[in-house]
What does this fold into?
Amino acid sequence: MIDTHCHLSHPNFKGKEREIVQRALEAGLYWLVIVGYDLISSKRAIAINHYHFPLAVGIHPHDTADITEKDLKTLEALAQTEDVCAIGETGLDFYRFFSPRDKQVEAFLFHLSLAQRRGIPVIIHSRGAVKEVLAILKDFANLKVVLHCFEGSKGELMEAIDRGYYIGVAGNITYSRSPVREIVKYLPVDRMLLETDSPYLAPQPFRGRNNEPTYLPYIAENVASLLDLPIEYIKETTSYNAEKLFQRCR
Ligand SMILES: [Zn+2]
It folds into this structure.
């Protein structure tokens, strides 16, 4: 299995990266996609990647308030590094608004054009902003898109599927009141990616604790039972999807 979204360079994991990767490999994972969320974590993702896992570099919408031209240049340079297979985490967050709207949009557009120039996928966070994200993406035809931890409506999901996007399913699928439990029933397995979003969003029965890639099989089990499909089918198909998407730089 492949965890398509984990923040292994997050300070919560500092000094423990090797043992976390070891545990993940023992749990049956063979790649982790390590996703940066600011310049520090993106640089650190490159530094700790002794495994040549696929990496993503980006600046999360929460961190775009004080973004400078120089930061964007640095990001562009990081995107040329070996093993960088995607741009992200980027996107829009109009739920918490830690950064002003115009700053978020400006940074998002930069990430999208960078992914397009590099010809690699973009990993998108959207909270309270799926409509706006889909509208902006209309101008980026042929871009390979991952909507991570998807929280949109059924209609928005259908639109994303129509356009060929991939949809990330995270640990919130295991939370009994999560709307994503209903939405996932409309998501074709050949567009599905599994992700932990470690250290956030730990699946049940670990909710509230530090999440790690080792818990990915709990997400696969939940998806399999919600869709009434064999777990091996879910594991194999989602791994195949992830390999296809992130293999280009390998
Ligand atoms: Zn994330």
Summary: The chain has a mean pLDDT of 96. Residues 5, 7, 35, 89, 197 surround zinc ion (CB under 6 Å).
